[in-house]
Amino acid sequence: MRFRGKSIRRKIVALLLVPLLSLTAIWCFATVLTGRAAQSLFSVSYIVEKAAYPTEDTVHVLQQERRQTLVYLADPRASDALSALRRSRAATDKAVAKIRKNAKDEKLREETGEATAERLTSILDALDGIDSLRRSVGDGTVNRSQALDLYNRLVDPCYALLANLHVLDNVEMDKQSRALVNVSRAHELLSREDALLGSALVAGRITRDEIRDVSDLVAQRSLMYDVSLPLLPSSERERFTRFWKNADTAPLRVAEQSVINASPGTPAV
């Protein structure tokens, strides 16, 4: 009986051991997955903090400096044109210094991978030319159209990095991330249009080429919204749609059409 009792206990232990081992395996697997997920989130947070945010900040200050530069070139004698330009340049220098500092972070380059590190290097290479561009503006050896193009070349590498910054292994989130970057690029097109028209108003004239450029920018922006917004959640998509249809944006839409339909000469905005 003692032997049989031991046998029964062994069978019970064996029967319990199978699910116990299974649960232990599942728990270990879940722990590994949770650990990987946590590590992935920490990695994402680090990349966003060190690469994405500084790049977005750099785009923003470059947009401001671009506009102030074109306004200055439109009328260098304006009393506040040079001081406003200097303030915008100081803001740009601060943002660029931060992105240069972060680019030296070995951990960031390891987390992002070789392709992203190369795109970050491309941003820095482009920004190396900003001092030369500023000197050309000061010397008056570039016009508004040339300055606009040169500043655009500083901004474009930033969006190349943001558009290819894959931080989550999730197809749906990746689509939405790309869509948001494209929505931001649509804003960049609007910023280019603003710089162009703002300086034309200061200059008191608009050329045929500038009218064509405005028309192209409006068309590109609309196309970018058409392609990108359907990839966003419905609530976000509806928010953008309402924004562009409400009364606050009506003056912009009217002004754009006025420029597109205008003849070269005094801006009709």
UniProtKB/TrEMBL annotation:
Residues 53-269 form the NIT domain. Its EC number is 2.7.13.3. One of its GO terms (molecular function) is protein histidine kinase activity. It is an enzyme of class 2 (transferase). Pfam families: NIT. Keywords: Kinase, Phosphoprotein, Transferase. PANTHER family: SENSOR HISTIDINE KINASE TRCS, SENSOR HISTIDINE KINASE YKOH. This is histidine kinase. It comes from Streptomyces avermitilis. The lineage of its organism: Bacteria, Bacillati, Actinomycetota, Actinomycetes, Kitasatosporales.
